[in-house]
Task: structure prediction
Amino acid sequence: MGKLLICDNVTKRFGGLVAVNRVSVEVSRGELLGLIGPNGSGKTTLVNLISGVLAPDEGRVLFEGRDITKLKPHERVALGISRIFQGMRVYPYLPVYYNVELSARSVFKDAKLARSKTIWALTTTKLLAETLELPANLTPYKIKMVELARALVTNPKLVLLDEPFAGLSPEEVSEVIEIVRKLNGNGLTFIIVEHKLRYLMKIVGRVVVLNEGRKIFDGAPSEAVNNEEVSRVYFGVV
Ligand SMILES: Nc1ncnc2c1ncn2[C@@H]1O[C@H](COP(=O)(O)OP(=O)(O)O)[C@@H](O)[C@H]1O
Ligand SMILES: [Mg+2]
Result:
């Protein structure tokens, strides 16, 4: 079977700065891939290129063998690519249930289906007790769960998580990991951008390391920590 996602030599420039420089990454169905690198190394930009928030200046993005380079974010969501953003992206004064249902309705025109998907996503993210709460009144962890529910409710094949552990306690991080592992065990593919390596390295099967927009490593987490260049540019500075 072909790869789920292929980034083929993608480049993104901001003026004179090359944020992502000829990066190629292939992701198979069912993988749990870590994307790491120092601050400003291009991780969020690469996630934006995959989700369609940005278009590459060069290179292509393929999903299930189809060239999606020119597709808009909502078109990619419909194909099965969901993401949660670095920082919070929910409607703070819309009850949790409607936050999630709105996302469901963007993909499922059938109201009944959208409703049942919403209940499933709220159950999966353990938000059933908060369905009528406003996100504005929730903890950062619960807001993160609302974001995750919004990403899951569209029936994705690939979920992109940009720093999902940021601002969470160790217990909350464990909760997120448990949910991600369970979904991954059911075949859902994840790309996780994360700074908290001690958590990330334990859960991912493979890690891609970026530095100054370039891919400098692609392989097993255990090999990444022993790689000289990775140690120098990444572990050396934390
Ligand atoms: N919209 C933008 N306009 C100009 N420069 C940007 C923009 N987004 C990111 N950059 C720059 O591109 C580089 C990579 O940023 P980013 O992908 O956010 O890094 P990371 O997520 O790894 O910290 C940084 O130097 C950043 O300042
Ligand atoms: Mg970032």
